[in-house]
Write a structure and sequence with these properties.
Layout: E1 2-8, H1 13-24, E2 30-37, H2 43-50, E3 55-57, H3 66-80, E4 84-87, H4 96-101, E5 106-110, H5 125-134, E6 138-145, E7 155-162, H6 169-193
Parallel strand pairs: 1-2, 1-4, 2-3, 4-5
Antiparallel strand pairs: 5-6, 6-7
The structure holds 5-O-phosphono-beta-D-ribofuranosylamine.
5-O-phosphono-beta-D-ribofuranosylamine (GRF) is lined by residues 8, 10-14, 44, 88-89, 109-111, 124, 177, 181.
């Protein structure tokens, strides 16, 4: 069974989609070993605890410096010993040691069709603001492997979403979440879980 750790910073709707997927069987062969948030106020922690999923807050604010925070974060990961780490709205720059240690075992959901509207500074509503500013008619979401770059890892899944007249960053964000993120993130986890997690052989495609 694929053991996953979900890292979050905010509302946790993607975490919710993962927990729902496991419960209703659209994500097979998977258990959540734990949820880690860098933000004590993240509603994602409440969602996890409501489902009796072990939830931890490791905040940079509680540590003297970044190195101490990174150490505590890595220790928690080691303790939870995941086969796969899922970044679901996790607004923390990962320790480089983590990327090395968990190579090809970290995935991220990004709210655009990479390579559009991605990279440094493109997170949250900003992504949708920029998409609207550019006037694209189609946007969407991407699940990708995490490597040393920002949003540069191998693309695993993408789903397109229409931009509608009168969209605001918020209305577009909501549609991208509902129609793309909450669909492809569970799908990617299921796909990985149904292959050999030890080998991390991910079959691409939709
Ligand atoms: C999502 O839009 C995700 O793509 C982005 O951050 C947001 C997290 O939302 N990386 P939630 O916490 O899952 O509700």
């Amino acid at each position: 069974m694929l053991s996953i750790v979900v890292c979050v910073s905010g509302g946790g709707t993607n975490l919710q989609a993962i927990m729902d997927g496991i419960e209703n069987g659209t994500i097979r062969n998977t258990r959540i070993a734990g949820v880690i948030s860098n933000n004590a106020g993240a509603y994602a922690l409440v969602r996890a605890r409501e489902r009796n999923v072990p939830a931890f807050c490791i905040s940079p604010k509680s540590f003297a410096d970044r190195a101490d925070f990174n150490r505590a974060f890595m220790e928690k990961l080691e303790e939870l010993s995941p086969d796969l780490i899922v970044l679901a709205g996790f607004l923390v720059i990962l320790p480089s040691e983590m990327i090395r240690l968990y190579r090809d075992r970290i995935i991220n959901i990004h709210p655009s069709l990479i390579p559009s509207f991605c990279g440094t500074g493109y997170y949250g509503l900003r992504v949708h603001e920029e998409a609207l500013k550019r006037g694209v008619k189609i946007t969407g979401a991407t699940v990708h492997m995490v490597d040393e770059g920002t949003d540069t890892g191998t693309i695993l899944y993408q789903k397109a979403v229409e931009v509608l007249p009168g969209d605001t960053p918020k209305s577009l964000q909501k549609r991208v979440m509902e129609q793309a993120e909450w669909v492809i993130l569970p799908k990617a986890i299921d796909e990985i879980a149904m292959h050999d997690p030890a080998q991390n052989t991910v079959q691409k495609g939709s």
